[in-house]
Design goal:
By secondary structure, the chain is α/β, with parallel strands linked by helices. Helix content is 34%, strand content 13%. The chain has a single domain, classed as 3-Layer(aba) Sandwich (Rossmann fold), CATH 3.40.50.850. It has 5 helices and 4 strands. The protein has a 4-stranded parallel sheet. One of its GO terms (molecular function) is hydrolase activity. This is Putative isochorismatase family protein.
Length: 192
Amino acid sequence: MSKHPRTALLVIDIQDAFLEPTFHIWGPSRSNPAFETNAASLITSYRHLVAKSSSSPSANKHKIIHVQHASKSPTSPLRPTAPGFAFQAFATPGDGELVITKNVNSAFIGTGLQGVLRGHFAGAAGIGTLFVMGLSTDHCVSTSTRMAANLGVCDGDGDGDGAHIQSLENEFAAVRRTEDVRKAWEEWGAEC
């Protein structure tokens, strides 16, 4: 049995609309030009951890959850009938991976996410480790991370940088570099 906690990876809003030049909510330049590369490597690494941990997805102590934004605006590239609603290719949910659809910033409002996480973490005295990644940090990622902390479905502390990331870290989450998280998951997988 592994000594590592139950975990869940929350992949938020990695959808095609964010690739559209007219919808870049981050302005003319991006704070992380390597986002897609980093996100793809994390998803791949976590999927390996899930695969090594259990032969039964329902009994697995690691769970990947995709969140998809469904805008209510008839002109939004994130509306369900728009091509931009689709997940980016590297972030397309795999077999057995849960998809939660939201239409506000928080992945917890109007969804069953809180219950899903509480059920998943029940074997870990109700609280496990929640990893959160996605688009964009100062919108849906930040809001969902703060709510997870406020609802008591995660905890953490650590080192980070950047205005929005730093504000999360000071009270709501531990912020880690892509390579550090990926390395930890690979070590956990080697112990399975």
